[in-house]
Amino acid sequence: IVPMTASHRDTIVNAVPAGADKVRLMSSFDTSKAEKDVDDPMGQSRECYSRVRDEIEEGVSKMVMFLETNN
After folding, report:
1. What's 32's DSSP letter?
2. What distance in Å separates the CA atoms of residue 22 and residue 33, rounded to the nearest whole number?
3. How many CB atoms lie within 10 A of CB 55?
4. What is the pTM of this model?
5. In whole angstroms, what is the distance from residue 16 CA to residue 8 CA?
6. Backbone angles phi, psi at 54, to 5 degrees
7. Given 14, 26, 46, 63, which residue has the most CB atoms within 10 angstroms?
8. What would the pLDDT profile of 41-53 be if each residue is shown by its tens digit?
9. pLDDT of 7-32, one tens digit each?
10. Which of 32, 50, 41, 49 is CA-nearest to residue 5?
11. What CA–CA distance (Å, rounded) separates 54 from 16?
């Protein structure tokens, strides 16, 4: 389970503690950076949507690399 925010991660882990090891923030796959939330662009500028899109694209790419090297 790959939530975008720490609060969503915490909600999932609190609801199903036994599954905590299966929950990782999207940003956690980039080990060169500190974990951070992906912003919600709802109601924001086009630039914000573009930035969030780029963050998600990078996060998915890092996640795929992680899965390919750890499976």
Report:
1. T
2. 20
3. 19
4. 0.83
5. 12
6. -65, -40
7. 26
8. 999 999 999 999 9
9. 999 999 999 999 999 999 999 998 88
10. 41
11. 30
